[in-house]
Write a structure and sequence with these properties.
By secondary structure, the protein is α/β, with parallel strands linked by helices. It has 19 helices and 19 strands. The chain binds manganese (II) ion (MN).
């Protein structure tokens, strides 16, 4: 890591991976540096990265541990016309995982049912009373998706009641695996597939691919099923579960977004229509479709969202899409109200000089805890837990910054008996405790964070992908950047630092806090820029001061295409600045 700027105008440290050839003007070197900082090296890998087809990235699905047993059991069950149940989850990954399996099994003509637990009533994962119902409905095989890896007791119960159980999941297993007939999970200790980055829906899709092959070998088909048509759902779950868009995930997303754009899934098409978007993208999947699919499970049951993804009926699709859209509006209203009071409380934590944020109140809706924790974490750059108190029990979610392992803290608190339940990973966790342990947990969290940070408040860091001369920030370079898409987790839009830009003019844009302007570059060309929310901060003050015209500045931000008077031109979206 190399520090480019120690303290920017917004008080941030600009860092880059640093171990590459410094060159401010050669675009080929610049693009290679970006790829290298993302771990893509060598002509073969670069070629594959620029053309991320599923074919190029898809391994044999049987490389996953237990896949062979899983597929034998499922295929036998399909061939002997047994009733099968899919057990999923209430978030987008869990819902799309369920949809992939149900859709496929229905196409095979299987009698398939499904269960999505409710967030408030049942909670995450397998539960005995749901399994009891499944047993009573005459199901012979239970397949879990995006959950089940920690359901040791529940799987034991299911097996005792005559169910065959196949677990498919992507969550980290505990020391003991459930005693199912097969456990497909790339995070198993003994799994050598290297596919630990898959979402629940990615694992489910691998199972369907393997099952399809097995059934073909058994001469099951009169007509083949095109599994590429399922990749829209795989892309959606992968993006919304914030999985890294690397290797096979990247291929799923690149292909899935194209399939989404062909509007083959009526429910997704209708939901996009209702939300007023046409062109699917990572952004549309993550911030337009995802929240609407999630809304149902946050407020009540996730069932309408799954129904939408599975329906072929226009009227039903429209009805469900409108329902989800309305639920999402309600979710936003609730979230905004909670955010207001949570921010006030968090403000207090920061004033007291704390290195962690813990906020809790009576009867906040549990479905928005994670979102609020994420927002507060970004706002204060501190590990943050947000929780709701109800009937003497506190339930919460936490989100952490890069140098604090929150999952570790939660596990330690669990071992000490401060928490009654808890789990998660470095960046995100969930927990439950008795209300009389609140103060103790709050102190434990703060002490643990201080220990992990060695007492030093974390600096706000920005990772820079490439440093270049501002004269190279043109349409030709932008096209080369666009070839690195789809952008998302682990493959973000490149952040560029432009050197040698001379300020020409700045003006207010619109009536908000946005500024726009132009700089002159070293070879005499001009580049327009826009800066959102800059009025009132150090950058806004600097830019709006006439005395600074003709000063040379260093700009940090993203290069984007901007439609302007019918034509398109490049525009630099300014995020930070240094002198
Ligand atoms: Mn998941």
């Amino acid at each position: 890591m190399r520090k480019i700027v120690e303290k920017s105008m917004l008080g941030k440290v600009w860092i880059s991976s640093g171990d590459y050839e410094q060159n401010l003007t050669d675009t080929k070197i610049l693009i290679n540096n970006i790829l290298k900082s993302r771990g893509v090296e060598g002509s073969e890998n670069v070629e594959r990265f620029l053309n991320p087809s599923i074919k190029a990235y898809m391994p044999d699905p049987f490389v996953l541990q237990d896949m062979e047993q899983a597929i034998k059991i499922i295929a036998d069950s399909v061939c002997s016309h047994e009733k099968i149940a899919i057990y999923g989850d209430y978030d987008v990954d869990g819902i799309t995982s369920t949809a992939v399996f149900v859709k496929y099994l229905r196409e095979l003509g299987v009698d398939v049912s499904w269960h999505l637990p409710t967030r408030e009533g049942e909670g995450y994962g397998l539960n005995i009373s749901a399994i009891e119902q499944i047993v009573n409905s005459g199901v012979k095989l239970l397949i879990s998706v995006d959950c089940g890896i920690s359901g040791v007791e529940e799987v034991k119960y299911a097996k005792e009641h005559g169910l065959k159980v196949v677990i498919t999941d992507h969550h980290s297993p505990d020391n003991i695996l459930p005693n199912a007939d097969a456990v497909v999970n790339p995070k198993r200790q003994d799994d050598t597939s290297g596919l630990t980055y898959l979402a629940g829906v990615g694992v489910a899709f691998m199972c369907v691919v393997a099952l399809n092959r097995e059934l073909r070998n058994r001469n099951f088909f009169d007509k083949e099923i095109n599994l590429m048509d399922y990749t829209d759902l795989v892309a959606l779950g992968t993006i919304c579960d914030t999985m890294p868009l690397i290797e096979l995930n990247r291929a799923f997303v690149a292909t899935g977004l194209k399939v989404m754009g062909q509007y083959k899934n009526l429910g997704l098409k209708t939901l996009m229509d209702v939300a007023g978007v046409k062109q699917p993208s990572v952004y549309v999947a993550g911030f337009v479709i995802g929240p609407r699919i999630n809304a149902a499970g946050r407020l009540d049951s996730a069932t309408p969202a799954l129904d939408l993804l599975l329906t072929d009926n226009q009227l039903i699709a429209f009805d469900l899409a409108q329902k989800l859209d309305a639920m999402n509006k309600e979710r936003i209203a609730i979230q905004n109200a909670v955010m207001l009071s949570a921010t006030e409380m968090a403000e207090q934590c920061c004033k007291n000089g704390k290195c962690s944020v813990f906020v809790c109140d009576d009867n906040w809706p549990g479905g928005v805890m994670g979102i609020i924790a994420g927002r507060l974490k970004d706002k204060y750059n501190l590990p943050t837990c947000v929780a709701t108190r109800c009937d003497n029990v506190i339930n919460g979610s936490g989100r952490s910054i890069s140098n604090v392992d929150l999952g570790k803290i939660i596990h330690e608190a669990l071992a000490l008996g401060i928490l009654s339940e808890g789990g998660g990973h470095a960046a995100a966790a969930g927990f439950t405790l008795n209300a009389d342990k609140e103060k103790e947990f709050c102190e434990f969290l703060e002490n643990s964070v201080v220990k992990q940070l060695s007492g030093k408040k974390p600096e706000l860091e920005v990772f820079v992908d490439a440093e270049m001369d501002a004269s190279g920030a043109n349409m030709k370079f932008l096209k080369k950047i666009d070839a690195l898409a789809p952008f998302g987790q682990a493959n973000p839009e490149p952040t560029l630092v432009l050197h040698g830009a001379t300020l020409k003019f700045v003006k207010y844009k619109g009536s908000g806090n946005t500024l726009s302007g132009r700089v002159r570059t070293s070879n005499g060309t001009e580049l327009s820029f826009v800066g959102f929310n800059m009025v009132g901060n150090a950058i806004g003050d600097f830019l709006l001061d006439d005395a600074n015209t003709n000063t040379t500045i260093t700009m940090l931000g993203k290069l984007k295409e901007n439609d302007y008077n019918g034509g398109s031109q490049v525009q630099f979206v300014l995020e930070d600045m240094a002198l």
